[in-house]
Design goal:
With 391 residues, the chain is α/β, with parallel strands linked by helices. The protein contains 11 helices and 10 strands. 51% of the residues are buried.
Length: 391
């Protein structure tokens, strides 16, 4: 074991109780996207006590922050990404409390291992992953402009260096018609619910001719006021997903075409908007993902040797991976195959196994970052793979 590795692991062990408590505090106080006031404050304050300089409210997002450590101009710049938003009703049923704990613990372990001239370490607080897609705004506002590598990990039922994540677009459809008494004078109405249902049926039929990778799904968020009133306003919210950005754009256009046809057929007015920012597909960096897995093995934990199957969700980390070399890894929170966004996952996110997985994940992130500093050739390979993937 190298001296710096030994020093890093000792530093992580020393800081572990503090960041286990932080993860549990976040779990006990869930806040949904763009409302993570306490979470952002608690994480920022914890990092400030460790010597990080924290800038709050970055990128016009009040609950976003950047915590910086290291000399100005030191390279590489390595960013650990923290998420901390919860789900409505379910709380931390995606384990973002553990993501925040892992990112902060990894950052702190690095600062107690390396010299301020060796690198810049950042912990970037990323709000509203579940809803708004905050990282997309952080990218657009230049928060990753000088970052060399971005790293994070997420709870799962396995340790693994990466999984597929599709791109996602949000489409909100609003139809406006004219109300009337549904029994006394239906002929005077223009039925906005008919328009939304017609659009829904068209979208459902469209799904029969999609690529296997693609997903289109949605809900009616407003369908009318009362059964005896012709609805004059309805609203539906949809997601389209695909791994190919061009196909993602095509699917969005086809969905909107269904809505326009429904508006034309029913005589309603259509408004199209988006509820969230666009999430791009993850650009994988195999060099980073494999190095992370090597570090997990070196800590005595098993790594999934075959990519786990199942459907692929979306994350705004994909936007980050399109602009800098990045890895979105996973740490084990349960031996059972618990699915995210469930009550069971929420329980795992505060369990002893979940917290132990968070610590393994934090150490693996920090050890990967340390290799990027100590092995210039590794960083070069990471950059080359990223550039080749951009061609």
């Amino acid at each position: 074991m190298s001296e710096r590795r030994e020093k890093l692991l000792a530093a992580a062990d020393g800081a572990t109780p503090k960041y286990r408590r932080l993860a549990l505090t976040l779990h006990e106080n869930p806040e949904i996207g763009l409302q993570e006031v306490k979470a952002a404050m608690w994480i920022s304050e914890a990092l400030e006590t460790e010597g990080f300089a924290v800038e709050r409210g970055v990128a016009d997002l009040p609950t976003a922050f950047v915590a910086r450590w290291g000399e100005v101009g030191a390279r590489p710049v390595i960013a650990f990404l923290a998420e901390y938003d919860a789900l409505p009703e379910l709380g931390h049923a995606c384990g973002h409390n553990l993501i925040a704990g892992a990112a902060a613990l990894a950052g702190v372990a690095m600062t107690k291992t390396i010299s301020p001239s060796d690198a810049q370490i950042r912990v970037i607080g990323c709000p509203a992953e579940e809803t708004y897609g905050g990282k997309a705004q952080l990218v657009d506002r230049g928060l990753f402009g000088d970052v060399d590598v971005a790293l994070m990990n997420h709870g799962f039922y396995l340790h693994v260096g990466g999984r597929p994540a599709s791109g996602r677009k949000s489409v909100v459809l609003e139809f406006r018609g004219k109300s009337a008494h549904a029994a006394g004078a239906p002929e005077r109405g223009v039925n906005a619910l008919d328009a939304l249902l017609l659009a829904f049926n068209g979208i459902s039929l469209m799904r029969q001719q999609l690529r296997d990778e693609a997903r289109v799904h949605g809900i009616i968020t407003h369908g009318g006021e009362a059964a005896n009133i012709i609805p004059d306003y309805t609203r539906g919210e949809f997601y389209v997903r695909a791994f190919d950005v061009e196909y993602l754009e095509e699917l969005e256009g086809r969905l909107i075409a269904c809505a326009r046809g429904a508006a034309e057929a029913t005589g309603t007015d259509l408004t199209v908007s988006a509820a969230t920012l666009t999430m791009l597909p993850i650009r994988h960096n195999t060099t980073l993902e494999r190095r992370y897995e090597d570090k997990v093995r070196s800590l005595g934990a098993p790594v999934c040797e075959e990519p786990p199957g199942g459907g692929a969700g979306s994350t705004d980390f994909g936007n980050v991976s399109q602009v800098v070399p990045a890895a979105h890894a996973y740490f084990q929170v349960s031996e059972a195959r618990v699915g995210a966004h469930t009550v069971e996952f929420g329980l795992a996110a505060k369990s002893e196994q979940g917290l132990a997985g968070m610590v393994i994940g934090a150490k693996a992130l920090a050890l990967t970052a340390l290799d990027l500093i100590d092995e210039p050739d590794l960083l070069k390979r990471v950059r080359c793979e990223f550039k080749e993937g951009a061609q």
